[in-house]
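Exercise 7b. Backbone tokens:
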């Protein structure tokens, strides 16, 4: 499973990238607002730090403008993936950008049918939002499993399932078990993945015993 970090906070992105386990970054307009930075400069900076795919979202809602925004965003850096919403204009934009070999992440996916549309339009990624489905009493993980099942019926589909709106470490495990290709995870949750009380306890015992040997490795 690939890991993307779901943030526009450049400090956090650098810190997590230094761990050596980061494959890419997703941003959205709400995360850009939080960062308080110029969008295009921010994306440029992120793309310099992380060589993997960096999603940057268009904000127009009509095809012509969406497409032009997508072209502009794609010119910021080679690793920009243009994010478009799952609307008729978004899907049309996805098709046209994909034909030009520009990677597209179709976002705000909440159903299998929507995921089928994204795949038909040649999306590089489709982003089902797990947490937001859970919020309304549905099961977000079931959507990941269902999309996986449908996509695997058609071997010619190359769209990757990018589990988004992840709210807990349990979501990460479940998304991996359901076969998501990528999980985009908020920085805090990526760190929580390290936690297990037996790891902390075991390490303490090993280090205490090592001290008693009075030896040094270096
Ligand atoms: C990622 O591409 C999405 O924008 C993000 O995961 C949304 O998460 P949220 O539902 O926690 O805002």
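Sequence design result:
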């Amino acid at each position: 499973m690939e890991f993307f970090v779901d943030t526009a906070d450049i400090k956090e992105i650098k810190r997590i990238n230094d761990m050596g386990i980061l494959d890419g970054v997703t941003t959205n307009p709400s995360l850009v607002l939080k960062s308080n930075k110029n969008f295009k400069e921010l994306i440029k900076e992120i793309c310099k730090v992380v060589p993997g795919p960096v999603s940057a979202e268009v904000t127009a809602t009509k095809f012509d403008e969406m497409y032009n925004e997508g072209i502009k965003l794609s010119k910021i850096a080679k690793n920009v993936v243009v994010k478009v919403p799952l609307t008729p204009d978004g899907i049309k934009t996805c098709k046209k950008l994909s034909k030009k070999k520009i990677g597209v992440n179709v976002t705000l996916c909440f159903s299998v049918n929507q995921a089928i549309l994204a795949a038909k339009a040649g999306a590089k990624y489709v982003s089902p939002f797990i947490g937001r489905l859970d919020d309304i009493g549905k099961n977000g993980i079931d959507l990941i499993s269902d999309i996986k099942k449908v996509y695997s019926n058609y071997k010619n589909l190359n769209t990757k399932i990018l589990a988004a709106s992840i709210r807990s470490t349990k979501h990460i495990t479940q998304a991996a078990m359901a076969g998501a290709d990528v999980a985009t995870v908020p920085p805090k949750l990526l760190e929580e993945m390290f936690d297990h009380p037996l790891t902390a306890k075991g390490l303490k015992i090993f280090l205490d015993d090592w001290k008693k040997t009075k030896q040094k490795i270096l």
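Instructor comment: The two ends are 36 Å apart (CA to CA). The chain has a mean pLDDT of 97.
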